[in-house]
Amino acid sequence: MRKNTRAPGNQEIERKFLVKQLPEKLNRWRHYSIAQGYLAIESFGRRHVRLRRRGKSASLTFKVGRGAHREEREIKLSAKQFAALWPATAGRRLRKLRYEIPCNGLLIEIDVYRGKLSGLVVAEVEFPDLAACRKFEPPSWFGREVTGEKSYSNVRLATE
Amino acid sequence: MRKNTRAPGNQEIERKFLVKQLPEKLNRWRHYSIAQGYLAIESFGRRHVRLRRRGKSASLTFKVGRGAHREEREIKLSAKQFAALWPATAGRRLRKLRYEIPCNGLLIEIDVYRGKLSGLVVAEVEFPDLAACRKFEPPSWFGREVTGEKSYSNVRLATE
Known about the structure:
- The structure is a homodimer.
- Chain A is mainly beta.
- Chain A is about 10% helix and about 50% strand.
- The first copy, chain A, has an eight-stranded antiparallel beta barrel.
- In chain A, a hairpin with a 2-residue loop joins strand 6 (about 95-105) and strand 7.
- The relative contact order of chain A is 0.26.
């Protein structure tokens, strides 16, 4: 088994930052609300199964690993499938508004958390390869990098 | 939140036994092969998400709790949904042949394990209510009762 290699479609290379100041006119970018909850969380979140509703579409995602490298498998769920499983995530959910901002050929995703996490704003950038990941220069409105910090994982945010 | 009450459709009341001797002419009863694997196992198996293929049909099941009382939520999966998630269960799978034997208005499910668990045979009986559960008298070919014993949970059998 090799580590740190990229299985096409299954692994993500990404960095995560706090956001010091939201860009102006944020609403001009594509945005939508997300509600997500966790069916099961194993090994302190290093392996988990997540349900997500994004607008009218729903999905179930399996993730293992954390930080810059991880494996992810996702399926779309019908409204009926989602409704049958969603009650099992009670007490381990979060809501956020996501904005998608194009930036030098990359996509910055800004998550503005709502509900009990209101006030927290996080930016995530996904990269096509490790080289692009390393050479990325954060824009001035980004704050501290929190890539791989457990306390900013969505699993922890949803359950604490 | 109440405990030990039954939410219709969501909770199972069942007992589990080892099988001393398989009944004769077992193949006259309905039977089918089952392959199952675990996407995520939380709290030593007390909460988990399971994938199962039974003949040509596939499902994803959420379970929380153990023993005579537990909550269960299940959805059917398309072949495509199943195929996308199944690789994530590598190393935490088991195979068995299940026989369904009607007995005094109840259904006895016999699981004959295969592969590395070959030789293990377990019977499970599900009850409509607690009264039926308590008054059940095991047939002579049943062995020791293992209801609630962690070492005979499918989660443990699949991962050890």
